[in-house]
């Protein structure tokens, strides 16, 4: 079992910055992929950014150039630096960790952290 604990959400004005953290209960070096997803009000969950075990990083088009995903393996933590925040970035942000098992991909999720961008 893997526990993921997010932190760092909050209320910020447009153009501001926040940094989200996701602390895992075990080493993150063995995960196939780690990333961040978000669910805006009334919408489906969507991918924001993820980093693979080979350190390949992928961003959603809507956040390219504004968000940066990174990881600190020594701390079992993944970060999401969010700059130039927009109103449409308001959402609950979820940390995700994926393992490849015999039966296929297995996903683990954090409890979510609220990010509200408002003037």
What would your notes on this structure say?
With 119 residues, the chain is mostly beta strands. Helices cover 0% and strands 55% of the residues. It has no helices and eleven strands. It has strands spanning 4-7, 10-12, 18-24, 33-39, 46-52, 57-59, 67-72, 77-82, 91-101, 104-109, 113-117. A hairpin with a 2-residue loop joins strand 9 and strand 10 (104-109).
Query: What's the SSE pattern?
Result: EEEEEEEEEEE
User: What is the CA-based Rg, rounded?
Assistant: 14 Å
Main sheet, how many strands, which sense, barrel? 7 strands, mixed
Structural class: mainly beta
Q: What's the shape?
A: globular
Low-confidence regions = none
Q: How many strands appear in the DSSP assignment?
A: 11
Strand content: over 45%
Whole-Å distance between the termini? 40 Å
Summarize the structure.
The protein is built from no helices and 11 strands. It has 119 residues and is mainly β.
What is the topology?
Blueprint: E1 4-7, E2 10-12, E3 18-24, E4 33-39, E5 46-52, E6 57-59, E7 67-72, E8 77-82, E9 91-101, E10 104-109, E11 113-117
Parallel strand pairs: 2-11
Antiparallel strand pairs: 1-3, 3-8, 4-5, 4-9, 5-6, 7-8, 9-10, 9-11
């Amino acid at each position: 079992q893997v526990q993921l604990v997010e932190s760092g959400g909050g209320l910020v004005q447009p153009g501001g910055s926040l940094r989200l953290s996701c602390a895992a209960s075990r080493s993150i070096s063995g995960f196939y992929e780690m990333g961040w997803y978000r669910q805006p009000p009334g919408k489906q969950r969507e991918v924001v950014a993820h980093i693979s075990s080979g350190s390949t990083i992928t961003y959603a088009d809507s956040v390219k150039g504004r968000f940066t995903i990174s990881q600190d393996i020594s701390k079992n933590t993944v970060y999401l630096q969010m700059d130039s925040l927009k109103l449409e970035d308001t959402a609950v942000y979820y940390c995700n960790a994926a393992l490849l098992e015999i039966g296929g991909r297995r996903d683990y999720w954090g409890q979510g952290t609220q990010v509200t961008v408002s003037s």
